[in-house]
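Feature request disguised as a bug report, sorry. It would help if multi-protein outputs had a clear separator. Right now it looks like this:
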Amino acid sequence: MMQQWNLPEIVTHNYDPRRGRFQNLCDLPASDAENILQDIRQSGLTKIKRNYLDRRLRTETWLREKRQNLIGITPRNTPIYFFLGDFSDGKDISRPKSVHIQLSDFNEDMITFTYSDSMNCFEETDDTRINIPPFNGQLFTLRQLKTVVSNWGLPACYTSKNATKTTFIEMQLWDNDPICKISFD
């Protein structure tokens, strides 16, 4: 008998309160983005590779191309990133604040998903290693994601308290409207 998997009902956006929520580094001029990255590097809170911005920009070009094929043109050219589920555990000390939003608050034609971090999905599309799931390197609509999870299950971080969160489901929001309607305490 096949295991029935339900998607989490909430998404989490983690952020640094000094910079604000619902930000995307790629919305900034490259020099401003690099200044922020350098500040994060110097804080020692997390490691960021020197080529991060270039990798992020290439990933977002890939995301836009895939998004256009799936849901068309959207109000945002760069996404706002969320984790599917509750990721407000405080383990990312560079982004200690979190916002939870119901997944049902988003129109399906304004969200996409990667089964893992989008940078990892993009960068592993040419990977020849074995045991790479067939959905790696793909972008999904919510309906497609439900099929993937039905066939392959959720990443371990959703099913085991002891699992690391190295593989998770990332949601990309391509419209500001849903987050503008939310009131925050």
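(second protein starts here, but nothing in the output says so)
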Amino acid sequence: MNTSIPTYTQTRSFATIALIELWERFGYYGMQALIVYFMVQRLGFEDSRANLVWSAFSALVYVSPAIGGWIGDKVLGTKRCMLLGALILSIGYGLLAVPSENTWQIFSALGVIVVGNGLFKPNTANLVRKIYEGDDSKIDSAFTMYYMSVNVGSTVSMLATPWVKDYVNAQYGNGLGWHMAFAVCSVGLAVGLFTVLSMRQTLNAVGSRPDELPLDLRKLAMVLGGGLLAVVGAAIILQYQAVARAFVYVAGFVVLGIFAHLIRSSEASERAGLMAALILMLQTVFFFIFYQQMSTSLSLFALRNVNGDFAMFGTHLWTWAPAQFQALNPIWIMLLSPVLAWAYAKAGSQGKDLSIAGKFAVGFSIVAIGFFIYGIAGQFAVGGKTSAWVMIAGYGFYSLGELLVGGLGLAVMARYVPARMGGFMMGAYFVAVGISQYLGGVVANFASVPKDVVDPVLTLPIYTNLFTKLGFGAVVCTAIALAALPMMRRLTATHQAHS
């Protein structure tokens, strides 16, 4: 147990980190709810370009923490990187709030968000780990609450920013509302930054070695200069699809090369665990292709083919804007997480808990059900518009599948990868997830709707055909996961025997 930090101080330190994480997720998911719509409806992008720009951005968001975590540990300090990242994120959302339809300005703003995320994301998580270092009984609970703060922030913002956009557009004309919504994201980060600065004394007992030393202005200048170059690089990747594809392919080969090298050069006692991690990581990559549909094809489906009016027994209950349907994911996650935790505990007490590989197989089968629900949405459509309840049901199954597959990805790295290469492999995992985010955009483009097609009756089968195929794709992933179970049992047994 980390006896150097009293329990009371641990609690206050964690509360500070959870609050700024809540506001950071408020900003990010508030932007995510609108950005594809903004590109299609305001910038006039084709669906295909909007999907790939957003997916390339998502890939960069996952890749950047691998660098930001190292900067926090070795260069500037974990706490300083968290604060600097929050400041840069606020600037990035602020740039999106500046009224403009210039793509270089928009992509540069997204590049600033990539850099801010890279500095913020890994270092907040690392601070949580440092607060409870050596106390396994508390760290699991802490990360559960940490994950809850993520979902609280994302739920509120995904419901709020579409409303702000629609309200301001209705009052002051189309255009301003988009930028006011992005401004709300920037203000959220500013509030989070103010919160952590006012409570900074609660973090005095945690941090990395550079946090204990005076700030080196030369190193800060180097990090900011590198960040500026990264912004330019990100803008180029987002502007030119060929560059984005090349980036993703190179990253994919690098990750596979890293695994091949580590498996070949590692000790015999470590190879079984690394091979098991590789198999499960590849399955996780396939899952995130499904995950990326939430902000691409499913988001555009909600825009064009979902009736936002919720009614029951002939009584109108409420109405949602298309962008607000993405909030169903964190809502379901918050509702299902306690149930799943209880089920894990009960199964474990009875000696019937599934292995991670088994949970992956079950998770993919549940994801398949979710996409089949979307696939049959046309059966409930009136004039090309399907019921909002279809979205609730589909997101429910999809979110449960996410908890079983996507939510266990980091647990795979922690369980099977040797501690001496843990940090390095975490970075490789995030790069792999970033690649799958881009591939998810490629898949979403199979449901790209031409600009001249606006009739919901015509767009509906374009989406339902893709969702049905994705359902069958998840069935194939389930079959592969089941087929890999015997091998996984052998590799896990060998790994545990040498642990």
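Even a blank line would do. Unrelated, but nice: The longest strand covers residues 315-319.
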